[in-house]
Design goal:
heterodimer; A: 116 residues; mainly beta; seven-stranded mixed beta sheet; 0% helix; 52% strand; globular; B: 115 residues; five-stranded antiparallel beta sheet
């Protein structure tokens, strides 16, 4: 199967700082990438969908000015949590799909964010 | 109409037994149904997927059964092993639609297989 990586795997930051999370498709071109947030023992909550070269489409209730998404190339998307606060602490997961994978989304390993 | 309802919330099975997880959907535009397996602290991994033009798909010990008229699909894990202990999510999408394959996830099932 296709491989998607995320970096960093975990990050601790102080309240008010910004954190950038990278999502890379390692062996296929990802025309679409998705960003999810997951709370303990809960399902995945879609935050936004991004297509390469286009602005991201955010789900209802997700602050686009707080969660900046960039999909500048067919193998890289970034999520920046701006002015992070403790309530932003969560497990962030990206997924990717492309022409080769079709409708199948391949997920990254996730990034654990802890805001102190 | 976008919901996918998954049950049970948790499941305990003895080693060698059959684990069965059920999902139901409302949106008849859904045309692709994947199952994902997630271990603690990891991202979901695609397990098996089915399209509505077939009623069953089997890959090793994992089988999806699909009932289009009832709008239900289920995952069967045969000969369950302790290593299968994980959270399982069903999902659905309209792959041919304008949502870029956005997945709608079920609530998840925590499977525990006792040795």
């Amino acid at each position: 199967g296709a491989v998607v990586s995320q970096h960093p795997s975990w990050v601790i930051c102080k309240s008010g700082t910004s954190v950038k999370i990278e999502c890379r498709s390692l062996d296929f071109q990802a025309t679409t990438m998705f960003w999810y947030r997951q709370f303990p023992k809960q399902s995945l909550m879609l935050m936004a969908t991004s297509n390469e070269g286009s602005k991201a489409t955010y789900e209802q209730g997700v602050e686009k000015d707080k969660f900046l998404i960039n999909h500048a190339s067919l193998t890289l998307s970034t999520l920046t949590v701006t002015s992070a606060h403790p309530e932003d602490s969560s497990f962030y997961i990206c997924s990717a799909s492309g022409l080769v994978s079709g409708e199948t989304q391949y997920f990254g390993p996730g990034t654990r964010l802890l805001v102190l | 109409q976008q919901q996918v309802k998954q049950s049970p919330q948790s499941l305990i099975v003895q080693k060698g037994g059959i684990s069965i997880i059920n999902c139901a959907y409302e949106n008849t535009a859904f045309d692709y149904f994947p199952w994902y397996q997630q271990f603690p602290g990891k991202g979901p991994a695609l397990l098996i997927a089915i399209r509505p033009d077939v009623s069953e798909k089997k890959e090793g010990r994992f089988t999806i059964s699909f009932n289009k008229s009832a709008k239900q699909f289920s995952l069967h894990i045969m000969d369950s092993q302790p290593g299968d202990s994980a959270t399982y999510f069903c999902a659905a999408t309209n792959a041919g639609g304008t949502s870029y394959g956005k997945l709608t996830f079920g609530q998840g099932t925590i499977l525990t297989v006792h040795p």
